[in-house]
Amino acid sequence: MTRTLLIGSLVAFIPLSGLIAEEKPAPTLDLEARKVSVANLEIHIAQREQRLAEWGRDIAQLDARIEKQVEELVKMLVGLRDSQNSRTKVTQIKRSAIEGLKHGIDLYAKKRREIREIVRTGGDEALDDLGKLDQRILKRVDQIAELTKSIPTHDDVDKYQSDGGSYWDGYYNESSRASDEWKQNRRDTVQSNKQRDDTTKALKEALERLDQRRRALKDLLANRKITESARKLYITELGQIDAYEEHINAQLRDVTVSSGGGGRAVGREQANDIEALFEDARRDLREDVSRLFLTYDQYVRGRAYLEGLKENLAARKEWLEKNASGKSGTP
Asked: Is residue 5 one of the residues assigned to a domain?
């Protein structure tokens, strides 16, 4: 009994704050500070939009410069052909240009796969970029076909030419040899046949890849659970394949039946000058394409970052709207 009273007396001297947790006042909602943060974020967004627009202009200018230079090179080479003096020099430059165009297709196709994955995983804003890359790839196909068709094919040229003759034992004996024109035509024919076979093979492989892509897309649309972004992408690609096939088939027919040839014959010295010009231009193009893709990557990252800022701004404005009207909310 005494012990119980003692405990009760001690409890009476313990402060109330030691038994009940002290209540903290509710935080004050600083609406003015939030309004300032919204204004600052809007300035930030305007700044990033300006930078994004600058990157967009850089991309457009680089792309236009690349296309202009490639078009001019192809046009120049198509208008030239070998002479007996240059033998196969011009044709070799054309074949080198065709290999460069094929490499360009590979680069654009690689970048296309990267962008396609962005679109598939929700980056719908990049869908139009795929179409632009497809246009560039088809343009390279056209340029390869034009260069291939410009290499002279077989022509009916007299094989032998007279070297004169002489009389022997009352008979006239005429001496003849294979003409230089016939030899050049044979060299042109060999080169042309080889390049046409290579181009034909590449075009047929492109058609096969398109057919494989069509089957894969149909399978994805029919048998898989896919996101709405992926579905939109697959439907868009499926709708484009027929047009791409028609375009490549047209070039395949032209390469197969075109007689080729034409253009201005150049000598070896001029062919060497053209080769030096071509090598410098190819180096410039490599640098420009590399810069184009680098700038595009910056643009893609900047576009995603800007979207995040805009979502943040929308959330802040929504909070202000709720709290400024007297509704409860947390800062």
From this structure: no
Domain-located, residue 51: yes
Please name which of 79, 68, 206 lies closest in space to residue 149, comparing C-alpha atoms: 79
Q: Quote the Cα angle for 79-83-84, to 5°.
A: 170
Residue 276 located in a structural domain: yes
Give yes or no for a contact between 120 and 221, defined as CB atoms under 8 angstroms apart: no
In angstroms, the CA 43 to CA 18 distance is: 50
Task: Please state, in angstroms and rounded to a whole number, the distance separating the CA atoms of residues 129 and 112.
Answer: 8
266: helix, coil or strand?
A: strand
The amino acid sitting at 164 is G
Number of H helices, E strands in the chain: 7, 4
Section 241-254 average pLDDT: 93
Number of domains in the chain: 1
Please compute Rg for the chain using Cα positions: 37
Please report whether residue 12 resides in a domain. no
Structure token digits, residue 235: 């439907």
What pLDDT digit, counting tens, does each position of 182-207 carry? 666 677 678 778 888 999 999 999 99
pTM score, two decimals?
0.79
